[in-house]
Amino acid sequence: MSDKPQGSGESTLTVVLALLVNLAIAIMKAIAGVLTGSAAILSEAAHSVADTFTEALLLTALRRSDRPADRRHPFGYGKERYFWSLLAAVSIFASGAVFAFYEGFRTVFGEPEEQTRPLVGYVVLGLAFALESVSWTQAFRQVRAESAKHGKGFWAFLRESDDPTVKTVFLEDSAALIGLVLAFSGLGLHQLTGSSVWDGIASLAIGVLLALVAYILARTNRGLLIGRQADPVMVRAIWKWLGDLPEVDAVVDVLTMLIGTDRVLLCARLDFDDTLSAHELELACVRISSELHTSFPDLDEIFLEPVPRTDPDLRRRVLERYGI
Asked: What whole-number distance in Å separates Cα of residue 72 and Cα of residue 68?
């Protein structure tokens, strides 16, 4: 349990750094876009503005999700992180992708546009790439450290992580670096060929990139908001741990749900030894709950339900859930 504040602090550092970097980059890109008349650079400016809004939403997510449980929300506010991260995904699409598509279609199908001061664009894009790399490096470092702590590969952890903030920053920073390369290519091809169509194509490609990132993040947070189970490795370990207890004849069902980052709700249905008295059963439940908290620190709330394994209705529901 002690590592949770540290993880939260690391996520906050990652988000704040990304916010400051993107704010500076957005201003530079906007100025360069106006001076050069490049649709791709203007699209990248909108991209950075969207990223800045995204980081502001993620900071809100971090602050509000750390509030303690109360009477109205007995399981805490952990899922607020998922809600605000979902809004961040919507922001990326609405503020970034839509503008990039607009600029791209306007440039490709509109009147040819003359390129001015391309050198300004190259310099700004180069500076933006250097600054963006700082934010990306911090996000990459955190994802790598977290994946090592959880004993998973880099991409597997990124796919299964229950912390959408660091995933959002890493993906949007990765998209930003790719977007800068696309904008640089569009600017260069416009200068070489004299055709602004290349600039418009680069803007459309940036729009597709942002829409893809927004979709991935929205899908991730949708699953977390609906109520995703805990890491399957952890679930199997809990199942085995419970099955090895001397008081338990059989583990009938294990239900888990993520209720926040590194916070898991557990409901275990157990067929206890029939020779246990009511008092012994109560003491066993208290001891098992305490030992579960110690063995699996991510468990936040634990419910143990004594049930007979032969109950036909319960057995049917379990079989239907797991598709057996």
From this structure: 11
CATH classification of the domain holding 83:
1.20.1510.10
Which of 211, 226, 241 lies at the terminal end of a domain, its last residue?
A: 226
For residues 219 and 236, state if they share a domain: no
Q: Is 163:149 a contact under the CB 8 Å cutoff?
A: no
The whole-model pTM stands at 0.81
Regarding whether 212 and 112 lie in a shared domain, the answer is yes
Give the residues across from 21 on adjacent strands: none
**pLDDT tens, residue by residue, 266-289:** 999 999 999 999 999 999 999 999
CB 15 within 8 A of CB 58: yes
Average pLDDT of 95-100?
86
254 and 151 within one domain = no
Helix (H) or strand (E) holding 268: strand 263-272
Confidence of residue 215 (pLDDT cuts 50, 70, 90): very high
Count of beta carbons in the 10 Å neighbourhood of residue 244? 9
CA-closest candidate to residue 163, choices 2, 5, 6, 11: 11
Q: Token digits for 40? A: 């791709």
Distance between CA atoms of 260 and 8, rounded to whole angstroms? 12
Domain count, the chain: 2
Would you call 300 helix, strand, or coil by DSSP?
A: strand
Examine the domain organization and report whether 195 and 251 are in the same domain.
no
Residue 119 has what pLDDT? 87
Residue 65 has pLDDT above 60, yes or no: yes
CB atoms within 10 A of CB 119: 11
What domain range includes position 151? 3-226
